[in-house]
Amino acid sequence: MCNKLEVTPEMMDSFMAAINENKKKPGPLMPTLHKAQEIFGCIPLEIQKIISKELNISISTINGVVTFYSRFSTEPKGKHIVGVCLGTACYVRGSQDILDAVSKELEIGVGETSKDGQFTLQATRCLGACGLAPVFTIDDEVFGNANKDIAIEQLQKIEAEN
Ligand code: FES
Fold first, then answer.
1. Is-contact 89 135, C-beta < 8 A?
2. Which DSSP state fits 83?
3. Mutate to test the pocket of ligand 1, among 99, 135, 137 (most ligand atoms within 8 A of CB)
4. Structure-model confidence comparison of residues 161 and 1, the more confident one
5. What is the pLDDT of residue 155?
6. Does the Cβ of 142 fall within 6 Å of ligand 1?
7. What's this model's pTM, rounded to 2 decimal places?
8. Whose CA is nearest to atom 1 of ligand 1?
9. pLDDT tens profile 76-98
10. Which of 141-153 are b and which e, b meaning 16 or more Cβ less than 10 Å from the residue's Cβ?
């Protein structure tokens, strides 16, 4: 299924249960895609086909949504997504330093996932929080007025929790 990712029958069972649950509600596509990303770590074509059949939505519509939103991916992603804003306001306030430090700490480049599967690093466009520049995110949490020390500290905090 996903490259480098083993899809177990348990994962598939839990995914099908989520689809069946979502089918009963209006607007089942987004919650189903969120669940797929959460369970499989990515939403490859094979999974999109299942969603298409179960929800009766065309593959092209599903693929369009998956590729539009950065939180969805057709390739495996880490458990945590670290995003460093390289928009103008953040860049002039030193976000490249944050990106370089995170890249060094995790030993990965932009778009890559750490070997332990914990982190995927992304460089993002303006997140609409320029007043807090420079900004980075870890999953849904936004860190403003940041610097590389704050970023490394947050990563180490997550690593320590594992
Ligand atoms: S440029 Fe980074 S939040 Fe706007």
1. no
2. E
3. 135
4. 161
5. 97
6. no
7. 0.65
8. 87
9. 778 899 999 999 999 999 999 99
10. ebbbebbbebbbe
Distance CA 123, CA 33 (A): 22
- Taking the centre of ligand 1 as the mean of its atom positions, its distance from the CA of residue 132, in whole angstroms, is 8
pLDDT band at 33 (very low <50, low <70, confident <90, very high): very high
Alpha helices for the chain (secondary structure H): 9-23, 29-40, 45-55, 59-68, 88-92, 95-106, 148-161
Report the residue among 92, 96, 97, 130 best suited for mutation to probe ligand 1: largest number of ligand atoms under 8 A from its CB: 130
41 lines ligand 1 (CB under 6 A): no
For residues 119 and 108, the answer to whether their CB atoms sit within 8 Å is: yes
Counting from 1 in the atom list of ligand 1, the atom nearest the Cα of 129 is 3
Q: Ligand 1 mean position to 137 CA, how many Å?
A: 11
| Cβ(129) – ligand 1 distance below 6 Å | yes
Sheet holding 141-143, edge to edge: 119-124, 80-85, 136-138, 141-143
Average pLDDT, integer, range 125-135: 96
